[in-house]
Amino acid sequence: MDTDSSSEEPTSMETNSEMEDTCSTTSQRSETGDGICPSHSSGDEAATQEANIVYMMFMASQLSGARVRLPEHNIGLRGDQYIQAVLNGNPRTCRTMFRMEVQAFRYVCDLLRDSLIMDRTERVSVEESLGIFCLLVGHAQGQRIVGDRFQHSSETINRHVKTVMRALHQLGRTVIRRTEMDGVHPYITENPHNYPWFEKCLGSMDGTMINARAPSRLSNAYRNHHGQIAQNVLCLCDFNMKFQYVYTGWEGTAHDARVFLDALSRRRNQFPWPPEGYYYLVDSAFPCIEKFMPPYPRERYHRSDRYSGRQFRGYKDYFNFRHSSLRNIIERTFALLKNRFQILSAMPRYRPTRQGMLVTACCTLHNLIKTVTPNDEFIQAALELQFSQEKMTGADNDAGDTSEVVDMSHESASAMIAQRDGIAIPMWADRFGE
């Protein structure tokens, strides 16, 4: 029994050692094959690092793509600083940018402020508001460009342009009116060809085409005979080149006579009728009625029709020549207005009522400038301007409209014809005298 037991013990011990070796071998295989021990720890760190890198890249892309608000108007001088620099700097800068002299600019600001029509806002002064308006209408600039110059938003620019436009339109009720003068105007008395023949003349009246923007459904009504979208504006000016009456709102297809009759027939238009015995000079597009003197029909009229001062065919031809020379003051005034305010040749997309207010505001500003500086460089350029024959209205084109109006007021037409003959015949007889 002892022998058997002793023989069994080594067997069991050998078996245990073999089991330990097998277990160790299996564990080593499992460590190397399954990768559960040290390799598991290093893979976890790599995955974490990779996730961190991906997250950082995502956050960086989100931050770079986010809209960071930056100041938009931070270039150059602010609006109030720019105005003071212009008004206190070289005077030519004010003429170039605001289309008027420094004293005229200050005069308009004081007038708007003293008349309580305008007052400064919390951030913008009256001077800056007027400067915004003058830069826009003088150079036909867009509101974004003007806003960049004055360092304001487009909404602020639009609001102040509208405020100044309404203020000047309201001021025009007192500024645009007939100038009372004792005696005959020096423009007539200083020219022996005009005095004493036109001593009862108070001014000249005509219509002009101002660029307009109209809705598509009304474009044909605003398209004039030149094919342009425009509005027909009736104006009356004196011999100081100042507007006495401005009537806006008519389409470009409307005839001058139709606009003229509408202006006279409506009481609310407040047309400045001349006193008894006095008259305004008009062209052949207007009716021949009392207090409005047109040229003789079916005769040469414009100055460009003459090739020599001695080639007149009678008193009617000679009268039309003198009539054209004197009535030309309204054409020079139109040229001065459009040259100073270039927005009238490139009207923005405003409503039709706002476009009419803008024209009236420009005419008001023109009168104020002419009051303070009657001989600035824009006026000197207009005085030297010569008009071609294409810019005038022919005498034979409107005979039908004129005859219809004459039939309606035969007595006034006869009175004007008699007054015109009373000037033309003696003037023809005295054409070679002093």
Automatic annotation (TrEMBL):
Taking the record's annotation, the residue ranges forming a coiled coil are none
Query: Which cofactors are named for this entry?
Result: a divalent metal cation
Segments carrying the region annotation (Disordered) are 1-44
Family listed: Belongs to the HARBI1 family.
Single GO cellular component term: nucleus
Q: Gene behind this chain?
A: LOC118347990
Instruction: Please give the InterPro entries that the UniProt record associates with this protein.
Output: DUF8040, HARBI1-like, HARBI1_dom
Every copy of the DDE Tnp4 domain together lies at 205-367
> What is the source species?
Juglans regia
Location in the cell:
Nucleus
The protein's name is: Uncharacterized protein LOC118347990
Q: Which UniProt keywords apply?
A: Hydrolase, Metal-binding, Nuclease, Nucleus
Domain DUF8040, residue spans: 77-169
List the Pfam families.
Answer: DDE_Tnp_4, DUF8040
Principal place where this protein is found?
Answer: nucleus
Compositionally biased tracts (Polar residues):
8-30
Question: Does Transit peptide appear among the keywords?
Answer: no
- Give GO MF terms, alphabetically: hydrolase activity; metal ion binding; nuclease activity
